[in-house]
Design a protein that fits this description.
The protein is about 40% helix and about 15% strand. It is an alpha/beta fold. The chain folds into two domains: about 5-30 and about 285-390, Aspartate Aminotransferase, domain 1; about 35-280, Aspartate Aminotransferase, domain 2 (3-Layer(aba) Sandwich), CATH 3.40.640.10. The strands form four sheets. A seven-stranded mixed β-sheet has the order 4-10-9-8-7-5-6, with helices on both faces. It has a four-stranded antiparallel β-sheet with strand order 11-12-15-14, covered by helices on one side. Helix 4 packs parallel to helix 10, helix 5 crosses helix 6 (about 115-125) and helix 11 (about 285-305) runs parallel beside helix 13. The longest helix is centred in the C-terminal third of the chain and has 22 residues, at about 285-305. InterPro entries: Kynureninase (IPR010111), PyrdxlP-dep_Trfase (IPR015424), PyrdxlP-dep_Trfase_major (IPR015421), PyrdxlP-dep_Trfase_small (IPR015422).
Length: about 400
């Protein structure tokens, strides 16, 4: 059993604020400031370059990778951190295509995050345009998995609506036709229980600044299944993915296993902050998290329907078919979100008309949900969004 009142106390949340945007950026763990101070002063400051050995900086990507691996159901030693999510998508996709050289189709869906699609398009160009990125509607993915497909590249949870793919089922379908399965867990890791091992995923990637609360710019992770880990050839053959980085050999030799998927220098300060978030996650039972997620999201949907019946639910009604977010359609959604933020209820907006709200039991209570639903009702019914100030678009929505 998880004490969510205890986990809530371990995050810095501004007084009077209901934070429903952890699906975009998780709040700061209270321990992060002291941990960063220690890393800056006692490690970087006093140890200087010896911190790579004395403070264990070089081992952080693998050590923290295993801690994240627990949350996504990965086998120990098969998850590593570093670089950005887009880089990890590129790495995983290139590795998967190399394992199926006779096939030329990458299958994705129109609910996938655009950056993943951009990475695929760039990789196709780099490979001479010999491959095809085939994009279908989310509900058409299963039927589109044919013998032409080399790899399915899907985000488990739709970033706009929260619609959730059935990872084990679609992975099994991919394997049945000889294709590989690559999953983006950006809106899954830390949102609900994930089981990449049980679901037989070939590759998985994800970020750590959303539900995992690693802070803005926190590094991404990559998982490679055991049957592929020793044979994949990284398209980005980075120095730290070399078998002996400090031998300074002119030719690349891949490190054993998941270590070969490392590329650049690990972001030590960011990993220090992430480590404090993982200390909180160590206290969390994932089935208990899922139970609380469902209870809070069901409460939110019901109370928003009561206070603002004019909003259209964009997320699946079945909690098993959605992730840890609830989305509504509203033509003036951007302005409405700005009005809510001014009233200290923070969600976000995704074009063209999606109001998104992350449901995170680690720091949200039933009382927070009730207040948020009430404020949504006030903003919508009283048209508080209808001002030039709230219609003015900022760089980040």
């Amino acid at each position: 059993m998880t004490d969510f009142a205890a986990t809530r106390s371990q995050f810095h949340l501004p007084d009077g604020t209901v934070y429903l945007d952890g699906n975009s950026l998780g709040p700061m763990p209270r321990a992060a400031r002291a941990r960063l101070d220690q890393t800056i002063a006692a490690e970087w400051g006093d140890m200087l370059i010896t911190g790579w050995n004395k403070a264990g900086w070089m081992d952080q990507p693998a050590r923290l990778g295993d801690r994240i691996g627990r949350l996504i159901g990965a086998e120990p030693g098969h998850t590593v951190l570093g670089d950005t999510l887009s880089v990890k998508v590129y790495q995983a996709l290139a590795a998967a295509l190399a394992l199926r050289p006779e096939r030329k189709v990458i299958l994705s869906d129109s609910g996938n995050f655009p950056s993943d699609l951009y990475m695929a398009q760039g990789l196709i160009r780099a490979m001479g345009g010999t491959h095809e990125l085939r994009i279908v509607a989310p509900e058409e993915v299963e039927a589109a998995i044919t013998y032409e497909v080399a790899v399915t590249m899907l985000t488990e949870v739709d970033y706009r609506t929260g619609r959730r793919h059935d990872m084990p089922h679609l992975t099994a379908k991919a394997h049945s036709v000889g294709a590989l399965a690559l999953w983006d867990l950006a809106h899954s890791a830390g949102a609900f229980p994930v089981d990449v091992s049980g679901g037989k995923a070939d590759f998985a990637v994800g970020c750590t600044y959303k539900f995992l609360n690693g802070g803005p710019g926190a590094p991404a992770f990559i998982y490679v299944a055991p049957e592929h880990a020793e044979v994949v050839e990284p398209a980005l053959a980075g120095w730290l993915g070399h078998d002996a980085p400090f031998a300074f050999e002119p030719a690349y030799r891949p490190a054993p296993g998941i270590a070969r998927m490392r590329v650049g220098t690990p972001p030590v300060l960011q990993m220090a902050a992430l480590e404090t978030a993982l200390d909180v996650w160590d206290q969390v039972d994932m089935p208990a998290l899922d139970e609380a997620r469902i209870a809070l999201s069901e409460q939110f949907i019901a109370e928003v329907a009561q206070h603002a019946p004019m909003l259209e639910l964009a997320s699946p009604r079945d909690p098993a078919a959605r992730g840890a977010q609830v989305s509504f359609r509203f033509t003036e959604g951007y302005a409405a979100i700005q009005a809510l933020i001014a009233r200290r209820v923070i969600g976000d907006f995704r074009a063209p008309d999606i109001m998104r709200f992350g449901i995170t039991p680690l720091y949200l209570s039933s009382e927070d949900i009730s207040r948020a639903a009430s404020e949504i009702g006030t903003v919508i019914s009283e048209r508080l969004w209808d001002t030039p100030e709230y219609r003015r678009k900022a760089a980040v929505t």
